[in-house]
């Protein structure tokens, strides 16, 4: 099954998110960005509007890639690999993986491939779903279930699952230094608050469906 067959069932909204919650993590003054898994280019367009930067994107979904050409500077309709002739002469100030790494068989290889694409002070910014999100843990503990869904943390197209701790390990073992990791899209489940209180406020990570990782290559 190729990519377009595997993801063809996705609702159109899956490809339209602008991801405004990522903007606070973007360094000011970036001149160039690469959005891996750029979908229809909504986030890339937001980057261009906010920072005035050049934005390239890689998107394997053909329909989305075609639409993205109207929103960003260059779109490569392909899967991201470590050998892309279109990127051979390019360097970027920021490379984005907005809920993408969990869809890859080898996310570590994708991060390694980015090293030659980053400017000396460039950063990788990745939004990654958190498998320790309270509703997922509740489903395991109370309902004894691991149920896939069409989107979200339990998206059926996810190949990898991460906790905050294993996100950091993924980047560090790939040769990066994590400069920031922060939960986004906070939820407020009343039973989570009780659980966190009982466990001496040690479970704050369970309140976030995603974390954003900002990482760079060590000096």
UniProtKB/TrEMBL annotation:
Pfam families listed in its UniProt record: Methyltransf_23
Biological process terms in GO annotation: methylation
A single MF term (Gene Ontology): methyltransferase activity
Keywords: Methyltransferase, Transferase
Keyword Nucleus: no
Coiled-coil segments: none
Tree of life domain: Bacteria
Name of this chain's protein: Class I SAM-dependent methyltransferase
UniProt organism field: Mucilaginibacter terrigena
